Amino acid sequence: MKKIILILLILIILLLTSCTLFEKELAYDPEILDNGYENLDFSCYFTIGYYDYENVLKNIENINYEILKNIPVLNMCSIKIYGNVYEERNKLKNLTNIRFIEPFLERKLIYSKDTVTRNLDYYQYALDLIDADNIWKYNSGNDVIIAVIDTGIDGTHPDLFNSFVDGYDPGDPMFPSKIIKAGSNYQSDSTTSDDHGTHVAGIINSNGIIKGLAYNAKVMNILAFRAFFTGGYYYVGDVYVADGIVYAVENGADILNISWGGEGYSQVLKEAIDYALERNVIVVAASGNNNTNMKIYPASYPGVIGVASVNPQGRLSSFSNFGINSDVSAPGSNIISTIPVSSSSMSYSRWSGTSMATPYVSALAAILKSNFKDATNNQIMKMIIDKSIYVEEDNIKLIHSSIFEHEPYSYPEKTELIVITEPHQVVHLNGKKYYSVKSNDEGKAYFKCIEEGVYKIISSEIIKMVNVKGVIEINLKERIF
To answer: Of 43, 78, 140, 150, which is the active-site residue?
Structure first.
């Protein structure tokens, strides 16, 4: 009996002090807007924001660690710690001369699958609902690149022939980074479940049996979810996705399509998206399938178009999130699209989710970008949100061809609020939309590409009203109101 108890104690200690790739931080506060390091107790994978990379290496030399990824343009790197995990974590809490540190967070693809039981044309209601025929009178996404940040994509699908540019697999703690060759089938050989990205890509630019909305746009596959050998996916981590975003931006992507999300606020992901927004890239993200008014990231970051889902009747889908991070909606219920040729005899499937609604908005953005070549990301984003048709019964906006009755140039080229406060403070912005942002190490909280209007700024015990027009900066530290 004593021997059994001793074995059990040893097993418990091993479990507590070990770390695997798939140990995720679901126990995090859903808002993840903390001021300290109290949430470091869930992982042995971390991202460090630094001022100087060499100083970071000196700073952590007494920690048993391995550098996994370094992104110089974002001043951040990821590490894995070894040995006694609790002891090494405590050392991390005492690091100095760094911008921030945070553990890896969980993100999930946002969809559900169903079977095809009727003729494929029956399920292509989405194009009629948004009046695609009239949208195509303007163009079909010519010369625009949409980065689909997702799973691998089957670029050999006949409906997706010649629809790609080179993409990027940023790797993860177990796999190295590599270029994804245009038109390749970037799937796991041991599973047929790695099909989410192919379905999303088909909604954007399929040009065969299934018609994508922006069928002349090009897709760039950026891997964010890798297939398990036994089926399903795992998220590669915010820092790896950040590296993928940098690749996409530096290699010509005009739009980022993000059909996934999670409840954790990440400074890593926020800074990567700000990097894209600052370089005139449009960012579109799924708002979630929880049928609630909750924050999902990255859809809840400033400057991201959050997308809800509607059904064939143009009403909010029963599963769709709404409200706080849903700027517009698009068809997302029972959407037919491409799946890898190897995963089904039919190679098409009917899925539902804000994952499926998001690429319709990305495709629309591509057509607008192609039609109004000089328009900024801020102008196109505002035009989509402002001119989509209002569905009063659900208090949502639905994308539609009527958007093209307007032009984006009446909107400001850039809208941004910079709030100066203490470092690593939570700043809330309440107005046309509600945002929460964490200030950086310099005490600056950036709200990029937000709508113009009057907002209430809330930080600690300070409350201030501000009318945002163009680019303005507010210093809360002056306390002069």
So the answer is: 150
